[in-house]
Design brief:
Layout lengths: L7 E4 L17 E8 L4 E8 L7 H7 L4 E5 L2 E6 L5 H9 L1 E5 L4 E6 L3 H8 L12 E7 L5 E11 L2 E6 L4 H6 L7 E4 L4 E7 L3 H8 E2 L10 E6 L2 E6 L8 E7 L3 H12 L4 E3 L2 H10 L43 H10 L3 E8 L1 H10 L15 E5 L2 E12 L4 E9 L8 E8 L2 E10 L15
Parallel strand pairs: 6-17
Antiparallel strand pairs: 1-4, 2-3, 4-5, 6-12, 7-10, 7-11, 8-9, 9-10, 12-16, 13-14, 14-15, 15-16, 18-21, 18-23, 19-20, 19-22, 20-21, 22-23
Helix pairs in contact: 2-7, 5-6
Length: 446
């Protein structure tokens, strides 16, 4: 799963469920008056406002913080309580329920469905069996990444494709003259991420389906509270977990069944702040934070090859022609100037820097999405894109893009740190990702 798409924080005093605005897709309109002094008339300008997801009537009463953010036109909970500590602990020690309905979702069907998917993505979809899910990326003609997401092969020529950014036009453009249908099902299918060590036991107790033998990155069909659902063993936390794909109109029934049974398994609803920390520990990238879509990049350095994002294993150059193949063949042959790596901050060094000023550092509670320069000596060689304290590892870690020559494991670099408005440098070391990778994530049976 990828959870980006122009996410911005909203602190609300009152957020009642909002109805879908007729004629404007998902987005209702707030009328903001504008005065014309010459005509002495007031005109109204349309300002899009978020709406609630299919689970909003259940998540809203739970969100005591009223701390929301906008995600693809929907209200999304940043944190349910005042602090996300309990929600993070649920992900790592029990079970967490996360509303991921704002993901863009597309259904690809027709005789040429497989052909279209293979034309767009860099992986070879012919290697993927029915019932399998893959993580993939797709590129423009220059071999620069447009977006990343998951594709589930539901039948021989039926695929469900998730994306972080709107992709309907791109998919349909590349399906011209093919016998294929690309349908946007984003408003027809709601989705929940059930993540954490007790998620499998909970799901086995509430779902009709073979959960025990469902392998990592596989999908099966079943029922929860009598509602037909797809259940995939996937997630954005790097832990044991599942994603449940639900008919929009029956979403609340599924939530209620999971919430009721979940009391036995210490289930908590979790928001984006807890998820952000977990995905950094898992070494998972977030579009428009850790890298930019080539469609939105303003300059060349904001565009990334898959080989610069750690996606090399997802590029299958031996398959039939696909978008960006020629450029990626050159990248594979000549190498790329940057690599995506994990870095671990030397906390002892951070403490020493603070001690110079008579201060004590506090481990930050939230993941920071502010890019921070990385240095080798006096030369800047990259940037940390997301930095977070890992509660389970008791370390400060970061995702980073660095020059290839400085990307080897164990390479010592320096990261900028600001204390009392003074810019300093602290020691960091390039380390393997994921930072946290428990065996239970992929273990079968569960």
């Amino acid at each position: 799963m990828s959870t980006s798409r122009g996410s911005r924080e909203i602190r609300a005093g009152s957020l009642a469920p909002l109805e879908k605005a007729r004629g404007f897709g998902m987005t209702p309109l707030k009328r903001a008056p504008a005065y014309n002094p010459i005509l002495r008339q007031i005109f109204f300008e349309a300002t899009p406002l978020p709406i609630g997801t299919a689970f909003h009537e259940r998540t809203f009463p739970l969100c005591h913080s009223l701390n929301y953010r906008e995600w693809s036109g929907y209200y999304t909970v940043s944190v349910y309580e005042v602090h996300h500590e309990h929600e993070y602990n649920a992900i790592r020690n029990a079970a967490a329920l996360i509303d991921i309905s704002p993901l863009y979702k597309y259904l690809i069907t027709g005789k040429d469905a497989t052909r279209l998917v293979n034309r767009v993505i860099t992986r070879d979809i012919n290697k993927v069996k029915v019932g399998q899910v893959i993580y993939c990326c797709w590129c423009d003609e220059e071999g620069k990444v447009i977006d990343d997401g998951t594709i589930s092969r539901l039948e021989e020529n039926v695929y469900r494709w998730t994306a972080a950014d709107p992709s309907l036009r791109w998919f349909r453009q590349n399906g011209l003259n093919m016998d294929v249908r690309v349908e946007d099902i984003s408003e027809k299918v709601a989705a929940l991420a059930l993540q954490g060590p007790t998620s499998a036991k909970l799901l086995k107790s509430v779902a009709e389906g073979d959960i025990a033998n469902l392998k990592y990155f596989r999908v099966t069909r079943g029922k929860i509270a009598g509602v037909p659902v797809d259940i995939s063993r996937t997630g954005y936390t790097g832990d044991l977990g599942y994603e449940i794909w639900v008919p929009w109109n029956d979403a609340v029934k599924v939530w209620d069944a999971l919430a009721e049974k979940g009391k036995q398994f210490d289930l908590h609803a979790a928001g984006m702040l807890a998820l952000d920390v977990a995905r950094v520990e898992a070494g998972l990238l977030l579009i428009e934070v850790d890298y930019s879509s080539s469609k939105k990049a303003l300059i060349a350095s904001q565009k990334f090859s898959p080989y610069e994002l750690g996606f090399a294993k997802m590029v299958h150059l031996e398959k039939e022609n696909f978008i960006g193949k020629r450029a990626l063949e050159q990248d594979a042959k000549n190498g790329v100037p940057r690599q995506f790596v994990g870095v671990e901050v030397d906390w002892t060094d951070v403490e020493a820097l603070y001690e110079r000023y008579g201060l004590t550092p506090a481990a930050p509670s939230q993941a920071s999405r502010v890019a921070v320069p990385l240095y080798s000596g006096e030369k800047q060689v990259g940037k940390a894109t997301t930095t977070s304290w890992s509660p389970i590892l008791k370390k400060m870690i970061a995702l980073a893009s660095v020059e290839t020559e400085h990307s080897k494991l164990g390479t010592e670099l320096q990261m900028e740190i600001t204390i009392e408005a003074i810019r300093l440098k602290t020691n960091v070391k390039v380390t393997a990702m994921p930072f946290f990778n428990p065996p239970r994530k992929t273990a079968t049976p569960v």
